[in-house]
Amino acid sequence: MIEIGKALISFDVLDQQFLCDLSKCKGVCCVEGDSGAPLTEEEAKTIERIYPEVAPYLSEHNRAEVKKQGFSIIDSDGDLVTPIIGNRECVYTYRDEAGIVKCGIERAYLDGKIDFRKPVSCHLFPIRITEYKRFDAVNYQELDICKPGKACGKKEQLPLWKFLKEPLIRKYGKEWYEELQYAAENMPRD
Q1: Which residues on neighbouring strands pair with residue 94, listed in sequence order?
Q2: Phi, psi angles (nearest 5°) of residue 45
Q3: CA nearest 142: which of 9, 2, 16?
Q4: What tens digit of pLDDT does each residue of 73-103 get?
Q5: What ranges make up the beta strands (E) of 32-107?
Q6: Beta-sheet pairing, 7-9 with 136-140
Q7: Cα-flanking dihedrals φ and ψ of residue 147, to 5°?
Q8: 31: which residues sit within 8 A by CB, 6+ positions away?
Q9: Considering the entire predicted model, what is its pTM?
Q10: Full DSSP string of 5-31
Q11: Virtual CA dihedral for 104, 109, 114, 115, nearest 10 degrees?
Q12: Which of 1, 55, 62, 144 is the most exposed place for a label (fewest CB within 10 A)?
């Protein structure tokens, strides 16, 4: 591990290669799992505020679930997360013409309707950050559902930390990212 600021970063973040391949995985990361996407309190408030602009991108069923469950919930572990449907799919998802599951919040952002892209935990995936009082643990979460992303990253020779440059800067800032880049490119590893 390396330490930058208050973040302890696993060498996997530096060494693994990754590039999402939505044509193969079909966006299953928004469906699989035992809980919704982790949220900060600020993100939960933002989602509630922007929801009128996001709702048109969602199916009637998903909008009904938001109405029923709320904009965010506390899961069984006591964490603030996005609501999910049937213990699976995030309520903020939709399927595109190719059947790929995508984020309605991000779609509204890309269409210029809102200024919030999506929860940072989603933007960073497959990096997962666990926040403790004194430090953040920054780890690569290797899952079978992301095998196409690993294969695509290997083919393109794209390190995970480069693939996730934008969300890492969003989370920790440009200076922090530059330190990460320096470490990735210069730190000897056995």
Answers
A1: 102
A2: -65, -40
A3: 16
A4: 999 899 999 999 988 899 999 999 999 999 9
A5: 73-74, 80-81, 84-85, 89-90, 93-95, 101-103
A6: parallel
A7: -55, -40
A8: 88, 89, 90, 93, 101
A9: 0.89
A10: TTEEE-HHHHH-B----HHHHTTGGGT
A11: 130
A12: 144
